[in-house]
Recover the amino acids of this structure.
């Protein structure tokens, strides 16, 4: 996770920016926004989220609604909008049940990954023919332009990044949030509902990017600060910055777009082949299907793996990976894992070396340091299935 060099007056502010400053956050430029990187410290915030409930401001992300231009709410409307978005992603969107969300990837014509995103089918009948989509903040404008270029004749894109998007993550998140949204405790991982807080309509999804149980809440900007303050009044909840968000997702073996995947990688190389359901593999009707299906059958040349440094020096993104004196890959994300109390990393290696236990060397500060390939994630994922 890298801060950007952007003039302060060019940055956007999330609806919670003033609250972050009041709480003593260290602010940095990120994805065009002034964002909190930490409050009390990355390690303490990380461990708090693993044990209690952490509140993250992820309003820099790209929530939006993609809808049919005509026929919303009519019979067959979901199938129609799903058929359109399936031109761009390899997942089974038609098969989503009302209120179900799915992680997928946006593909270019060669099968390279343009972004990872979550697509939700609303559960309310009048919104069939609409998809709620959350794309990554750093590439949201490119994604939206891509949607409009490829699907604009038949769909309408409505941006929702003028709202606040909050994530409450950790084992105590559900116990906290059920007082705000009764019934959220009955939701399963990747289920979404329209719910109300003090008559404010919210979108609530049981998901997140920390590996812990938790929820993401889309709420109107004018209600966001009051909502966040009430959450933070609970002693089980603390504000968490981008630094801990990055270490939490790394421990959980989750990709960061632009680091662990990009347009040069396909889903099989990125170890994301599970986003391609059987029905889509059989139809082979998604962008880059020839390349991706070949990789599924024959195996890719390189593959994303977990990497365990065997010394205390962390290996950051860009670190070269060697085996028997030959470079065989590169670290894409690396740092210290507070939950496991040791350095951890992810990266790409030749597929023949992508076996847990394979000995490799990491070139850190010009010196070869021992490491080995390991299974992901580094800590168990605690989603409510």
């Amino acid at each position: 996770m890298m801060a950007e060099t952007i003039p302060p007056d060019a940055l956007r502010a999330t609806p919670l920016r003033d609250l972050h400053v009041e709480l003593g956050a260290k602010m940095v430029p990120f994805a065009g926004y002034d964002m909190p990187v930490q409050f009390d410290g990355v390690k303490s915030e990380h461990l708090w989220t693993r044990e209690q409930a952490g509140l993250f401001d992820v309003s820099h992300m790209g929530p939006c609604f993609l809808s049919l231009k005509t026929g919303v709410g009519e019979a067959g409307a979901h199938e129609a909008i799903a058929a359109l978005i399936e031109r761009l992603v390899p997942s089974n969107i038609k098969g989503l049940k009302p209120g179900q969300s799915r992680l997928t990837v946006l593909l270019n014509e060669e099968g390279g990954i343009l972004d990872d995103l979550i697509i939700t089918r609303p559960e309310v009948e009048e919104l069939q023919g609409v998809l709620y989509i959350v794309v990554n903040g750093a590439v949201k404008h490119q994604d939206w332009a891509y949607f409009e270029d490829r699907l604009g004749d038949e769909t309408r894109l409505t941006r929702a990044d003028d709202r606040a998007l909050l994530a409450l993550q950790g084992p105590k998140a559900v116990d906290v949030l059920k007082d705000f949204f009764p019934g959220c405790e009955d939701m399963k991982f990747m289920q979404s509902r329209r719910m109300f807080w003090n008559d404010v309509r919210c979108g609530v999804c049981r998901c997140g990017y920390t590996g812990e149980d938790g929820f993401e809440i889309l709420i109107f900007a004018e209600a966001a600060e009051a909502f966040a303050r009430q959450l933070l009044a609970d002693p089980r909840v603390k504000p968490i910055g981008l630094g801990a968000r990055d270490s939490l997702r790394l421990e959980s073996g989750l990709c960061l777009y632009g680091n662990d995947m990009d347009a040069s990688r396909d889903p099989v190389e990125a170890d994301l082949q599970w986003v391609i359901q059987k029905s889509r593999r059989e139809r082979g009707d998604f962008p880059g299907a020839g390349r991706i299906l070949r990789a599924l059958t024959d195996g890719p040349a390189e593959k994303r793996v977990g990497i365990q440094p065997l010394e205390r020096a962390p290996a950051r993104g860009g670190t070269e990976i060697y085996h028997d004196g030959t470079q065989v890959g590169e670290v894409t994300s690396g740092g210290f894992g507070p939950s496991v109390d040791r350095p951890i990393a992810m990266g790409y290696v030749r597929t023949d070396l992508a076996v847990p236990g394979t000995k490799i060397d990491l070139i850190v500060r010009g010196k070869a340091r021992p490491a080995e390939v390991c299974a992901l994630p580094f800590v168990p994922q605690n989603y409510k299935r």
